[in-house]
Specification:
CHP02241, Pnp Oxidase, Chain A, Phage tail protein, seven-stranded antiparallel beta sheet
Length: about 140
């Protein structure tokens, strides 16, 4: 039972994002952190009952971050507007934090590129929380440390 008490869980988590030290703020949703091993299949001549599955490379999905609209959206606009004048790939750090500020997990993403920012849908007939979504592409994870 003592081991279970030492485990931090990711309940009520927010995701704090920084791009090369520039704070983009906290997000309430994060999806797409992961990777996939791309397999190539090879059929061996004379062996009809078996197909080789050979790993070839890693593929990384885009990461989508969402949150209610707020003043922090200005930091996203500043970061994305830098792409117009020329862009160098940067490193992103995403930290999953509990409500009391304890870090549950951290990911460092290599060669981050902004893909899309989607602002709120302003519809007067449906009152709801206005949200924004930031989608970023990356080229792998950096080692912790």
């Amino acid at each position: 039972m003592s081991q279970l008490q030492d485990v931090e869980t990711a309940v009520s988590v927010c995701y704090v994002v920084q791009i090369d030290g520039q704070d983009l703020g906290a997000f309430t949703g994060c999806e797409g952190i992961g990777c996939e091993v791309v397999l190539e299949t090879r059929e061996e001549g004379g062996n009809n009952g078996f197909v080789w599955q050979l790993p070839s490379r890693l593929k990384f999905p885009n990461v989508k971050l969402t949150r209610p609209l707020g003043r922090q959206t200005e930091s996203i606009a500043t970061w994305i507007s830098g792409v117009v004048t020329g862009y160098t790939r940067q490193t992103a750090v995403i930290q999953a934090m509990t409500a009391d500020g304890a870090i549950v997990a951290e990911w460092s993403l290599h060669d981050v590129v902004p893909v899309r920012w989607t602002g709120p849908q302003l519809t007067p007939d449906q009152p709801k929380v206005l949200t924004e979504t930031l989608e970023i592409a990356h080229h792998g994870f950096l080692p912790a440390g």
